[in-house]
């Protein structure tokens, strides 16, 4: 067998190394950090091919097909987070912000009734299973009374003596799958327990929370 020049042997060895390196690179999946003109779906096991298991979706389907769209669903298919593809920011959930409150208690919701009376009410879409409500209460001179909160017709937290701060966090639904997105009615009720006088209440903080 004729001897091959040494440089040919060296080249064959280098070629073998490169082929091995290429084979390793082909069979090794690099970290996925960028997707161009495509979509990404995150699914949970054990049925990754079942559409109902979709957890999050990121796709290029905005105006002109060049803006990413973010949708996050919970395990039951509810859209719990999405972005506004037209202007940016959040599309869902809608996050209400409390306007500045009047600190003069004479202008607060109030009652002079000696029976439980609803003095303030609001309705909010139900996005989360828990809620926190913080409320200031006052009473006129020589008066005694109480304040309570009703959520969906059920008392939320404890009854407080007028003059104290109401601050309570608790579950507002035990069936999130059925109540998701429905209006939640929140009522502030007060009662005068003395002969005469006025009881006042003013909510200053309310937001939903996770379990």
TrEMBL record:
It comes from Streptomyces hydrogenans. This is Uncharacterized protein. It comes from the Bacteria.
């Amino acid at each position: 067998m004729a001897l091959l020049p040494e440089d040919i042997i060296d080249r064959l060895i280098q070629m073998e190394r490169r082929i091995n390196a290429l084979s390793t690179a082909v069979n090794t999946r690099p970290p996925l950090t960028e997707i161009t003109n495509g979509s990404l779906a995150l699914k949970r096991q054990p049925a990754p091919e079942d559409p109902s298991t979709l957890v999050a979706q990121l796709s290029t389907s905005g105006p002109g097909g060049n803006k990413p769209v973010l949708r996050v669903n919970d395990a039951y298919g509810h859209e719990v987070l999405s972005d506004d593809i037209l202007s940016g920011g959040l599309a869902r959930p809608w996050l209400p912000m409390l306007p500045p409150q009047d600190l003069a208690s004479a202008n607060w919701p109030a009652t002079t009734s000696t029976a439980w009376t609803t003095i303030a009410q609001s309705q909010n879409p139900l996005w989360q299973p828990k809620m926190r409500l913080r409320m200031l209460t006052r009473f006129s001179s020589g008066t005694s009374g109480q304040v309570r909160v009703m959520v969906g017709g059920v008392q939320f937290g404890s009854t407080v003596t007028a003059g104290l701060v109401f601050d309570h966090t608790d579950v507002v639904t035990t069936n999130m799958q059925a109540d998701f997105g429905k209006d939640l009615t929140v009522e502030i009720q007060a009662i005068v327990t003395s002969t005469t006088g006025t009881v006042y209440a003013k909510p200053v903080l309310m937001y939903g929370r996770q379990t």
